[in-house]
Amino acid sequence: MLHVNLVMIEFKNVSKKFGGTNSVLDNISFLIEKGSFVYLVGPTGSGKTTIFRLIIRDLFPTEGSITLDQWDLFTLPKSKIPHLRRKVGVVFQDLKLLLDRTVIENVMLPLQFSGVKDEEARRRAEEIIIDVGLAEKLNKFPLQLSGGEKQRVAMARALVFNPEIILADEPTGNLDIQTSFQILDLLKSINKRGATVFMATHNEKLIDSGGDRIIIVERGRIVEDKKARQKSARADHETGKKAKDEKEELKKDKIKLESLVEEKGKNVS
Ligand SMILES: Nc1ncnc2c1ncn2[C@@H]1O[C@H](COP(=O)(O)OP(=O)(O)OP(=O)(O)O)[C@@H](O)[C@H]1O
Ligand SMILES: [Mg+2]
Predict the structure, then answer these.
(1) Are 220 and 266 in a shared domain?
(2) Do 222 and 178 fall within a single domain?
(3) 45, 68: one domain
(4) Could you tell me if the CB of 178 is within 6 A of ligand 1?
(5) Are 169 and 203 in the same domain?
(6) 3-state DSSP: the chain helix, strand, coil percent, rounded to 5?
């Protein structure tokens, strides 16, 4: 049994029904340790976003209990909610970027809402935007950015309070494999700095090696809770690339050899 202060999130027999009958989560229990990187995998409609909404108390469970770093989310007083939202940084599935605000303005917003002065908010937002690799885009609007860049803005905004937990809901949703791995690397580096990362995805191919945990949900139930396989899609991707490079080299060598033979043949004749 883990000592209680090593546990960041605990779901105990949680069920969620919408409208009294529509059962979306059915008696799920899991525990996430502080500082870990956990993937939440499942097909569309399986309940991933609902799990995240429960963690930020955007929803209440119909049954069961949820504990977040020793806070019982059911009894947590309303006055503590802003504290909870600073503790948990969320990268929403639909990003929730304001289109009429620039990158830096989007990232400053949560700080301003919580009463941080503009100058300080700007300084902190800028620092984080640079950290996620968007220094050149500070004054661009979301519609002037690529999908991967928008995802980074949402990530920067989730990081402004230096949260202990990051919930990333399909952060690689519409991105190509290369960009997806970059986003994953960013989350990994945040995790290395100490944050607990819980990332939802329905793309199991993305899942990195290194023994991270995967919780698989299907139709609102946990069907598997395991360590990630060691050989990841990234390894396959990179091995594939290496093999391709080697093949190209061989092809070049073959062409060289053929022209040499041809040259030689000419000299003989
Ligand atoms: N507010 C709501 N009222 C009624 N049903 C809902 C509500 N929110 C979600 N659902 C239903 O709950 C189920 C799970 O939804 P959820 O958004 O958690 O799935 P998901 O795993 O995040 O899917 P995706 O991979 O498409 O994002 C779906 O069938 C959805 O229609
Ligand atoms: Mg979802």
Answers:
(1) no
(2) yes
(3) yes
(4) no
(5) yes
(6) 45, 25, 30
Interhelix angle 177-192/233-268, nearest 10 degrees: 130
Instruction: Dig out the tokens for 141 from the structure.
Output: 């609007």
- pLDDT averaged over every residue in the chain: 88
Q: Looking at the 3D structure of the chain, how many domains does it have?
A: 2
Q: Which ligand is closest to the CA of 47, given by its number?
A: 1
Residue 42: CB within 6 Å of ligand 1?
yes
Q: Which of 15, 18, 167, 216 to mutate to test the pocket of ligand 1 (most atoms within 8 A of CB)?
A: 18
120 inside domain: no
Q: How far is ligand 1, taken at its centre, from the CA of residue 96, in Å?
A: 17
Determine the distance separating the centroid of ligand 2 and the alpha carbon of 92, expressed in angstroms: 9
Q: Is the CB of 219 under 6 A from ligand 1?
A: no
Q: How far is CA 78 from the centre of its chain?
A: 27
Name the percent of the chain lying above pLDDT 70.
81
Interval 152-199: pLDDT, tens = 999 999 999 999 999 999 999 888 888 898 899 999 999 999 999 999
pLDDT tens column, 20-45: 788 999 999 999 999 999 999 999 99
Element (H, E) at 149: helix 147-159
